[in-house]
Amino acid sequence: MNDSPRPTGIIVQGSIPWGTHLCLFYETKQDLLDTMVPYFRAGLENKEFCLWILQPSITRQDALDVLRRGISDFDRHLSEGDIELTSQEQWFTKNGKFELAAVVQRFREQLEKAISNGYVGLRANGTSAWLQKTDSTAFRELERKLDEAIAGTKMIVVCSFSLQDSDSTLVLDAARTHQLTAALRHGSWEVIETHEAGRPNSSKQDFKVVGAAMHQSAKLTTLTPREQAVLARIVTGASSKEAAQRLGISPRTVEFHRANILQKLGAKNTADLVRIVLAE
Fold it and tell me: 233-248 in b/e burial notation, b at 16+ Cβ within 10 A?
């Protein structure tokens, strides 16, 4: 396999190798749309088959509108089958039922089809946040199996998660099951390297990072229910005033809980706290 880096189109990440499984946190729907346009443009320009698995908040028309504005000759790419837009329900379920093995196989078959049709590889985007909220065990298993399926192949998959809809548990689970985590918060990017789950040459690193993540998970259990609720707001980038309004408490009370959280988790400041929760 040609291991030359692939341009992501995402400014913060530059180029990444084939077989990359990347986690992307974003704040608004527009943030996601604005990020996916250059991501898929880079794929189309480099003869990759592009697959956009649309989450419910993004309609097919939303996607078509931004892609047409941001990619020259997009309609030609669409008519020639260079890019496919499909719904989350169509991709992840069959007759309304989710089957993990079938979803992973679907990715493999899509890659095989792309290669046989002359594309150099597959680049995709989607989200499994809905699964984490209904079955966190199945969510972690899906991401782990997908990570294994991507490794060593000409496939790049970016899994996107809304910070507005994510609690601290989802953030931690998502970061721990991807090789790289990029977060777009308040218009600024941050990239956090995490473990390479399932990669044969990274067992020592896996042990180190997973062990650290388990340690952080143990620390999280020391937080009171109210502290966990405040933490969830902090992680999504909410100010003390915004968190207070959401939780029905005063900003001063939020600051009190924030101070306790920082102490319990061994964080120096809010930025450090976010890095800890993202399984530094």
Answer: bbbbbbebeebbeebe
Look up the CATH number of domain 222-277.
Answer: 1.10.10.10
6-202 has which CATH code?
3.40.50.300
Q: Contact, 91 vs 130, CB < 8 A?
A: no
DSSP code at position 163: G
pLDDT digits (tens, 9 = 90+) for 183-212: 777 777 776 655 444 444 433 333 333 334
Phi and psi for 137 in degrees, rounded to 5?
-65, -45
Domains 6-202 and 222-277 share a fold: no
Angstrom distance (rounded) from CA 158 to CA 41: 14
| Residue 167 Cα distances to 131, 174, 236, angstroms | 14, 11, 8
pTM of the predicted model as reported, rounded to 2 decimal places? 0.70
What would the pLDDT profile of 18-72 be if each residue is shown by its tens digit? Answer: 998 988 988 889 999 999 999 999 999 999 999 999 999 999 999 999 999 999 9
